[in-house]
Amino acid sequence: MTATITPAIRAELAPRAKLRVGVNFQNFLLVARDAVGGEPRGIAPDLAQELARRLGVGVEFVAFNTAGKLADAVKTGAWDVAFLGAEPQRAREIAFTKAYLEIPATYLVPDGSCIHTIADVDREGVRIAVAEKSAYDLYLSRNIRHAQLVRAQDIDASYDLFVAKKLEALSGLEPRLAMDAGKLPGSRVLEGQFMAVQQSIGTPVDREAAAIYLREFVEEMKAAGFVADAISRHGVRGVTVAPGSSQ
Description:
The chain is elongated and about 60 Å long. Helices cover about 30% and strands about 25% of the residues. Helix 4 links the parallel strand 8 (about 125-130) and strand 9. The strands form 2 sheets. Strands 1, 4, 5, 6, 7, 8, 9, 10, 11, 12 and 13 form an 11-stranded mixed beta sheet that branches. Strands 2-3 form a two-stranded antiparallel ribbon. It starts with 6 loop residues before the first helix and ends in a 6-residue tail after the last strand. The chain has helices at about 5-15, 45-55, 65-70, 135-145, 155-165, 175-180, 210-225, 225-235, and strands at about 20-25, 30-35, 40, 60-65, 80-85, 95, 100-110, 125-130, 150, 170-175, 190, 195-205, 240. It is an alpha/beta fold.
């Protein structure tokens, strides 16, 4: 059971008497705009609303159109909590929970490609389109040794770059790449994954009480079935509930 909310926890999570929640609308698996009112809906907003309910405050969603901009906004104090992938480069300024869900990241290759496995991608002469400052860009930046990363400003632009420049591979989240493959005859999504993006909740690193509470909150949401129910309720495919911290 999540710890009791103390005045210190409430002050750090909602210092303006409301919970300001940073979300990335390009990650349609986690958040989308309601067709009628335009309000955020999805797995991340559901978790945010439950957190705010426990705090006894309202929610103010702070919208971003890339994960990089969402992460960078911690420097300006634009949000109190944010829903984004946990990566070491971000952890210097953001205290992350363990993941509440995981999303596989892989590659899309064009028709006629001689690339057949994920291991084939990291070779000389291979150019990989990637959305700048996405969680998988940060991972690939640490791990790619031979291929060249070609960055675009966001997910849509990375697909456009892949097609326009006839690059050898497009990196991305598997559910999104499956959609892109439908637009590009003969293209293939490679089986497996080069990483699983750890979708987590973050708060500014200096808010220690908030960080401890959020870690307990996430573990309870997973164990109680809240995350699994949200995935099912919103019909999201291609994601899985992350293992509990004891697993």
